[in-house]
Amino acid sequence: MLRSVNLKTDMVRKGTHGRKVVRPMTPRYITIHSTQNYTAGAERHSEALKNGALRSPKTRYGNRIGYLIWHFTVDQRVAIQHMPTNEQGEHADFGGPGNRLSIGIEMCENRGNSRLATTERTARLTAVLMKKNGIPLRNVVPHYHWPRRGKHPPNKNCPHFLMDNGRPGKKWRAFLGRVNYYYQQLQ
């Protein structure tokens, strides 16, 4: 299964940008995102993370380090890992449990990228991570799951193409069905 994910490792260097502060984590959730960036695939997102291009202002209820960082970026061809899964990212809900307890996966939406192939690759990667980390399917959540203090609305419509009217519904359940299908193949 991992071979079909086509996983590459391209880590942000420890001590720089999104990893300048390393906070340990035992993952209990997997959070699924969509980039809403229509110009960059997984490799360009990886470069942006390594070069510190994805800044986020540090605020009372905001980002703790001034940079965005997540664990994996997926497109139709590849999944790229940017940081170890035992470190906290800055991808979900600022200092809340979404960042403190979850592995973040971003799905690319760039022009020319197949959304279907990206979603399937993400479902496979999610199943592998569930198995490796003992994470149950009920703890695979959309970014929407984590309210963001100080934001309106607090629950982000993300991944927007897997939400129904801005909330988890039939499309999200179908995605979880694909994840569970791949997870059952690993058993």
From TrEMBL:
<feature type="domain" description="N-acetylmuramoyl-L-alanine amidase">
    <location>
        <begin position="17"/>
        <end position="169"/>
    </location>
</feature>
<keyword id="KW-0749">Sporulation</keyword>
<dbReference type="GO" id="GO:0009253">
    <property type="term" value="P:peptidoglycan catabolic process"/>
</dbReference>
<dbReference type="GO" id="GO:0030420">
    <property type="term" value="P:establishment of competence for transformation"/>
</dbReference>
<dbReference type="GO" id="GO:0030435">
    <property type="term" value="P:sporulation resulting in formation of a cellular spore"/>
</dbReference>
<dbReference type="InterPro" id="IPR002502">
    <property type="entry name" value="Amidase_domain"/>
</dbReference>
<dbReference type="GO" id="GO:0071555">
    <property type="term" value="P:cell wall organization"/>
</dbReference>
<keyword id="KW-0178">Competence</keyword>
<dbReference type="Pfam" id="PF01510">
    <property type="entry name" value="Amidase_2"/>
</dbReference>
<dbReference type="InterPro" id="IPR051206">
    <property type="entry name" value="NAMLAA_amidase_2"/>
</dbReference>
<dbReference type="GO" id="GO:0008745">
    <property type="term" value="F:N-acetylmuramoyl-L-alanine amidase activity"/>
</dbReference>
<keyword id="KW-0961">Cell wall biogenesis/degradation</keyword>
<dbReference type="GO" id="GO:0009254">
    <property type="term" value="P:peptidoglycan turnover"/>
</dbReference>
<dbReference type="InterPro" id="IPR036505">
    <property type="entry name" value="Amidase/PGRP_sf"/>
</dbReference>
<keyword id="KW-0378">Hydrolase</keyword>
<protein>
    <recommendedName>
        <fullName>N-acetylmuramoyl-L-alanine amidase</fullName>
        <ecNumber>3.5.1.28</ecNumber>
    </recommendedName>
</protein>
